[in-house]
Amino acid sequence: MIHRRFVLLGIVGVVGLVLALTLTGLGENLTYYLYPTEAVEQRADFPDGNRFRLAGLVVSGSLIEGDDDMTFEVTDGGATVPVLLTNTAPSLFDENVPVLLVGAWFGDTFVADEALIRHDENYEIPEEGGAYPVE
Amino acid sequence: MTRVRVLFAMAGAAVAVGLWFAFTAPTDALQGEFSRIINIHVPSLWVAFLAFGVTALGSILWLIRKKPRWDRLASASAEIGVLFTAIGLFTGMVWGQAVWGRAWDWGDARLATTAVMFFVYLGYLALRRATPDQPARAQRSAVLGTIAFVQVPLVYFSVNLFRTLHQTQSIRPDGSTMPPEMLIAMLINVLTFTLLYVALMAARTEIAVVEEAAAPVASMAGEGISPPRLGEVEDV
Amino acid sequence: MSFWSQTMEIARVDMSLERRTGDVTRIVVPFAVIALLVFPLALGVDLSGISRIGPAVFWALGVLFGMQVALRQTASDSPERRDLYALLGVDPAAKFTGRTISGAVLTLGFFAALLVAMVVLYSPRLPEGWLAPTLLSAMLVAIGLTELGTLAGEVTAGLRSRTSLASLIVAPLAIPLIIGGSQTLESVAREATILPWILLLLATDLALAVAGVGLARPLEEASR
Amino acid sequence: MAHETPPVAALATLNRTGVTLGNTRVLSDITFSVAPGEVVGVVGANGSGKTTLLRLIASLIAPDRGDGTVLGARLGTSEVFTIRRRIGLISHIPTTIPELTLEENLLHAVRLAGHETAKVADSLRAVGLEGSSDRKASDSSFGMKRRTEVARLLITKPSILLLDEAISGLDSDAHALIDALVDRTVGSGGAVIVVSHDPLQMEKASTVFGLAVGALTEMT
């Protein structure tokens, strides 16, 4: 049967294409968000006002809360980016917490109007007393 | 029906144990009490994947063997899969609102592909509903049940293929990224939900057997017509 | 050899039926262009917004109405015609392939008309060198969409609510095609490589071709 | 395609075969065979399952009990795909694509069946359609569409010819055409099954069965 051969070769072809797809990094291409290092590297691609998403860890000791905004820094271990958040943050927002920010460059500062907590796959039991109390 | 009763009794007991573990296991440092949602969210979607896999298997076996039991297996599993996808999506939205600060995000590949999977299997159930004739229904839905499964691995691997807001798997070939107490609680609930799935499957397939038996008794062709008796009937 | 001669015969007759009935040129294309007009009306007078959403609207409408091309009336066989084809010894896989060829040509023509209408009505800001990648991705989307439409049309053949039911089945499964099509243009705009998106479209098209050819016989049985 | 033709002389056999469509048991227990050169008639009332019987033998529906063979292929298996093109069926409504002309309809069928298209013109003349071959099927009469079907079967030369009320509603010329088709099929070692509610249409049949409540009885 010719069809059977086509189906078998086709399945091999699909698997090959999917493998090629993972290797070429579809995920990197569909830029859902950038890490601070990438954001600094690709600064020229995102002129002021061009919105993108930035993911990183809130730097310990950098958080200053204003009346209706707050400033802090995010890092991915490489670059560190200063952030101005013009909106209220989710209840779990704190220093040392991984966050996802939606906004745009404004000079050297990333001005965000939305902050999300980006919990990763790592779970930890709190130290004595609980480091992150829930309101 | 006794087999189903036993299975439901076992599943009920298991759910009680699972709940106890879910509420006594330690919580995550960042998420606090919200991290307990994992004990419903992950098992639900695990059952959904399992159920759609069984649907695909039943569909392929039907196409090869043409035995009604494979069609019953495929359809029962798809119904339960849709139910648990809905539970998974709902608990995910609650969790997302609580932790991320946002219930839904179309830019996230895991969320988007899961929603697509949900709609594909809703389409599968709609197709079944729209096809009245039993063998035709089995044949058509078996074809769709086979094609539809193609995107289930896409949902599972979406967190690895794309950068997502959704976290990646906590259980990996090289071990787990969860403390053992939390992991055990979650795994017990995965087991519990699987047992619940088995019980629901047993019940649903038995109902399907009863439904098919209760279908109107097949009438014989030609029986519906009797010789005309125009002379016997007056005033027509 | 009879596989390809049957395939080409099915495709040829489909095309001449389209020439005579005008299902696509007289119904789907005008309807899609009207839909294109609805967006600016609903958005109000924000003209910069219109030029920005142009490509996105093109892909959304292209896929939604492209489904209607694949599910057009002339490509759905009456039960009598199915019997005739069966007894002429038509290979169900050849019918699938022929339908896909004619449908893909028509869908590509529809995409071209919609693209011209979008460029004229929305005056979008298009990056340099956009045309070739867009046409390449449009061709791959047209093939995939037609494969999907042909499969769904066969699965729902003869059912009362055939068109809406087939659309319900096609729409979610067409997501990789929408992503691949729209992201190709995005990548050109960002000066990034379009290769992953072309690969995604190729993988989808090939997977659907495998499903269509491999499941052609069970589908042929299902339709009666 | 390496399946052996069983050493039976019969072109079609049914062995305790049953068919259910939806909720209706149309055929319950049919045992029947037709040999080369034979013309078999089946008479039955409206709704007695005559069309279903022909569609079963044409391999267009699968039996749900019992078994049967047509031209050596077991019914309900993929074997039927290889022999289908040797089955000719004239159903009570002629099958044409309305937007195509009669000649295009014939050409389409002949090309799909893999036959010489050169014979199309002769065949149209043989059935008396040379004057209306470029008329659209939607504008053609019942008789014209029926003659187009006969023209097709003259080219495809089926080994087994199934006639479902084929003569009903035809003029005497068209009737003669169908008779000629039957004679040709039988003459070349094929078999014909004629199905009708009208016993008068069984004139060519050597054996006549009656079909009632799902079963066959020989009437002779």
List keywords for this structure.
heterotetramer, C: 224 residues, mainly alpha, 0% strand, D: 220 residues, alpha/beta, Rossmann fold, six-stranded mixed beta sheet, four-stranded antiparallel beta sheet, 6 helices
Give a brief rundown of this model:
The complex is a heterotetramer of chains A (135), B (236), C (224) and D (220). Chain A is of the alpha+beta class and 135 residues long.
Q: Describe the biggest sheet of chain D? A: 6 strands, mixed
The helix tally of chain D amounts to 6
Strand order of the largest sheet of chain D: 6-7-8-3-9-10
Shape of chain D: globular
> What is the tally of beta strands of chain B?
3
Q: Globular, elongated, flat, extended or rod-shaped: what is the shape of chain B?
A: elongated
Mean pLDDT of chain B: 85
Explain this structure.
The complex is a heterotetramer of chains A (135), B (236), C (224) and D (220). Helix content of chain A is 24%, strand content 29%. Chain A is α+β, with helices and mostly antiparallel strands. Chain A folds into 2 domains: 26 residues; 87 residues, Nucleic acid-binding proteins (OB fold (Dihydrolipoamide Acetyltransferase, E2P), Beta Barrel). Chain A has a 5-stranded mixed beta barrel. The radius of gyration of chain A is 21 Å and the shape is elongated. Chain B has 236 residues and is mostly helical. Chain B has a single domain, classed as Four Helix Bundle (Hemerythrin (Met), subunit A), CATH 1.20.120. Chain B is built from 7 helices and 3 strands. The longest helix of chain B is centred in the last third of the chain and has 35 residues. The termini of chain B are far apart. The model of chain B has no long low-confidence stretch (mean pLDDT 85). Chain C is mostly helical and 224 residues long. Chain C has one domain. Chain C contains 10 helices and no strands. Chain C is globular, with a radius of gyration of 18 Å. With 220 residues, chain D is of the alpha/beta class. In chain D, the strands form 2 sheets. A 6-stranded mixed beta sheet of chain D has the order 6-7-8-3-9-10, with helices on both faces. A 4-stranded antiparallel beta sheet of chain D has the order 2-1-4-5. Classes of the chains: A alpha+beta (135), B mainly alpha (236), C mainly alpha (224), D alpha/beta (220). Chains C and D meet through helix 1 and helix 4 of C and strand 6 and helix 3 of D. Strand 3 of chain B pairs parallel with strand 2 of chain D, so a sheet runs across the interface.
Layout of helices and strands:
The complex is a heterotetramer of chains A (135), B (236), C (224) and D (220).
Chain A: H1 2-24, H2 26-29, H3 36-41, E1 52-58, E2 64-65, E3 70-75, E4 80-85, E5 98-106, E6 109-117
Parallel strand pairs in A: 4-6
Antiparallel strand pairs in A: 1-3, 1-5, 2-3, 3-4, 5-6
Chain C: H1 2-21, H2 23-43, H3 47-70, H4 79-87, H5 92-122, H6 131-155, H7 162-173, H8 175-189, H9 195-214, H10 216-222
Chain D: E1 12-21, E2 24-34, E3 39-44, H1 50-57, E4 65-70, E5 73-74, H2 80-83, E6 87-90, H3 102-112, H4 119-126, H5 142-156, E7 160-164, H6 172-187, E8 191-196, E9 207-212, E10 215-218
Parallel strand pairs in D: 3-8, 3-9, 6-7, 7-8
Antiparallel strand pairs in D: 1-2, 1-4, 4-5, 9-10
Helix pairs in contact in D: 3-5, 4-5, 5-6
